[in-house]
Amino acid sequence: MSIYTDAKYMDVPYEEKLKLFKEVKDDMRYDHNLYGCYECGICVAACPSARFYDFSPRVFAQIMAREDVDTFYELLNDNVWDCSQCYSCTRCPRQNNPGGIILMMRDAAVRAGLQSAKDALRAYSRIIYKVMSTGTQVAPDMLQPDFFPDWGTDVKAVAENLDVWRRAIPPETLHTTELAWDVSEKTRLELYMIWKLTGNLELIEGIDEGIYMILEEVMEELLDDNGYDIDDFENILED
Amino acid sequence: MSVTTQAPAVHTESKVPLKEFVRKGEPPTEDYREKLFELEAKGELEVQRVPEPIMEVETKYGRKKKIPVEHTWHHKSCGQCGHIPGYSTSIFWLHRQFGLDYFDPKDQSSCTAWNYYASSTSNSAAQAAIAVRNFAQAKLDGYFPLIHCGTSFGHYKETREEIIHHPELRDQVRRIMDRLKMPFVFPEEIVHYSEWIHAMRHRIAERQTLDFSNIVSTVHPACHYHKLVVEDAIYDRELYDGQRTAIVTGLVEALGAKAADYSTWHDCCGFGFRHILVSRDFSRSFATIRKIERMKEEADPDVTITHDTGCVTTLDKSQFAAQAHGRNVGIPVLSDAQFAALAMGAHPYNVCQLHWHGVDNKPLLEKMGIDHKKAWEEFETIAERIESGELDFMTWEDADVK
User: Fold this and answer.
1) With an 8 Å Cβ cutoff, are A136 and B119 in contact?
2) Which residue, of A227, B148, B239, B283, is most buried by count of CB atoms within 10 Å of its CB?
3) A28 with B358: Cβ contact below 8 A
4) In chain A, how many domains are there?
5) Which domains does chain B have, with CATH numbers?
6) pTM, whole model, 2 decimals?
7) Which of B81, B129, B391 sits opposite A194 (nearest CB)?
8) A68 in a structural domain
9) B208 inside 8 A of chain A by CB
10) Chains A, B: CB contacts under 8 A, how many?
11) Does B11 contact chain A (CB < 8 Å)?
């Protein structure tokens, strides 16, 4: 039972929260990310997210150190996606890595398919599709005025002249519009094998089933074209 | 409230007798190279050595780091290649100007770490396998990895720590690489391109054709360069008395420009990974209020120079909308590679591709002595020839039109 009278998520069974808490504590990176907390606030002073959100990297270190499972679950749902992942908080005099703790918590939230994680990533799904299917995260054709209206008039100029301007770049690998660079088929094939062997494709199923289905189809086709069966690539992490 | 209008130089005269601190103790962190060589001796993985000739630089705790001069495998950056193509092009152009051997591979994936830091839709095993697959391909191609992206650089350093310390992760990576029929290779050093520029800065200055002595620049160091695995970043006692990373500032000073200081130097740019794509109100607010406005008020620079994908994007693109709110913005943002290339006479549009940037950089080009109108006409002439079908694309020879 939480010590806070205004605690949220009290309808969620404690065992469910504890399971996720243990997942984070069992992460192989945990021992290198948390050594205790002086509560000095240096991490908060250095944190960009703390300046614009109701967010504190110190709270993450404290809650994990105190093993406050209820508050952990609240942070997991309400705060974890505000972090900028810049690691300015590694200025910690106890060598804590609050950004690293948050990354492990996000991992747990995604694995569990929490609704808060789905909400946080809803607008982001197209990026997941891009990086998993092509091996590059962003592409020139993403520069569209309706997607980046706040980035200025050069975005419109780029969009209007995209094909010609991409070919007006000297390195041959950059004459692309749908990829950041010309990624070979072999690279994509091997990347798909890695996603399958590490359970990453299935991970997407729990977050966005639509993107998962498209990704599986794209991967299955390329693997099949190269004489591989997608089902032969089991998740080796489950061994 | 007083506002500083003159930029304080990096090297200010001390008001007290100089007492130089000399570090005597051993570095507080393990030497990752020793650990890698131990794993290699046990037959667990293969360590790719930095090829000769090498340049030595000093890192945070006094260790020497090897930087290859050439024979480099260019691990490109999604954000640079996709949205700031003059960034990558300038890196290649610099290599070509010095006649150095390099390889620009197609068989290279992104590190995918931008996505991982943004969405957590991956795991340590996949991230390590992707790193090792790229490193193995570099080895098979006969070149040494030179990492263009600051996040790839930082993430690969984290991955190195995880591989060194977790035998179960090494086992997973080994099994994956076996399925891919590729070797388990890790490089002796993980080298960021800006470290190559830092080590080459005096050679770059020797080839400088433009006078930058009237240029004032602020510097933004990338978080994932010097805050992730902090000991593996370049520090130099001649710059900031060795108290901050020397990266970028070393180049700015070597080119004769003034590196002006400001109070939020250590702050992040506001990129945020997820935020820059889907929560840009945060990125924009932080970039303008905590970085650009501080630079304007305290240093009033002609340009700010940084060395990572996300930093260039965030600091540059965030300034447009901020004008609607009457914010004190308007600083051109360049990478160190573009700044160095311009100093050596690179074409501002054919090579540095400055038309992909948001903030008006024409006043900067004029101060550098560059005829931007003529340069834009030259670019447009080539673009028209491409559009008409006369040219397939711009060659390196086309780019260096005189």
Assistant:
1) no
2) B283
3) no
4) 1
5) 32-187 (1.20.1050.140), 210-377 (3.40.50.11810)
6) 0.95
7) B129
8) yes
9) no
10) 269
11) no
What is the rounded distance in angstroms from the CA atom of residue A125 to the CA atom of residue A114?
15
B 365-384 residues with CB below 8 A of A? 379, 382-383
**Residues in CB range of B44: below 8 A, 6 or more apart:** B170, B174, B184
Structure confidence by residue, pLDDT tens digits, A129-146:
999 999 999 999 999 999
Nearest CA in chain A to B122: A200
Structure tokens at B18: 């100089």
Instruction: Provide CB contacts within 8 A for B100, sequence distance 6+.
Output: B69, B70, B72
Look at residue A183 and tell me if it is in a domain.
Answer: no
Among the partner residues A28, A91, A123, nearest to B278 by beta-carbon distance: A123
Quick one: B244 exposed, middle or buried, by C-beta within 10 A (0-12, 13-18, 19+)? buried
Extract the tokens encoding A14.
């404690």
A187 interaction partners in chain B (CB closer than 8 Å): 106-109, 137
Residues of B in contact with A110 (CB under 8 A): 119-121
Question: In this structure, is residue A204 part of a structural domain?
Answer: no
The answer to whether B274 and B118 are in contact (CB under 8 A) is yes
Find the CATH number of the domain harbouring A93.
1.10.1060.10
Are B176 and A182 a contacting pair at CB < 8 A? no
B187: its two tokens:
């490089």
CA B129 to chain centre: 23
**To the nearest whole angstrom, how far is the Cα of A167 from the nearest Cα of chain B?**
5
The CA distance from B373 to the nearest CA of chain A, in Å, is: 17
Instruction: Give tens-digit pLDDT for B164-217.
Output: 999 999 999 999 999 999 999 999 999 999 999 999 999 999 999 999 999 999
Indicate if the pLDDT at residue B1 is higher than 50. Answer: no
Domain carrying residue A66: 14-112
- State which amino acid sits at residue B208: Q
- Residues A228 and A224: their CA atoms lie apart, in Å, by 5
Return the higher-pLDDT residue of A5 and B345: B345
- Number of Cα atoms under 13 Å in the Cβ half of residue B221: 29
Q: Which residues of A touch B355 (CB under 8 A)?
A: 154, 157, 165
Inter-chain CB proximity A190 and B227 less than 8 Å: no
Q: How many CB atoms lie under 10 A from the CB of residue A37?
A: 20
pLDDT tens digit sequence for B42-101: 999 999 999 999 999 999 999 999 999 999 999 999 999 999 999 999 999 999 999 999
> If contacts are CB pairs under 8 Å, which of residues 19-58 in chain B contact chain A?
none
Q: Return the structure tokens found at B177.
A: 């690489």
Determine, yes or no, domain membership for A73: yes
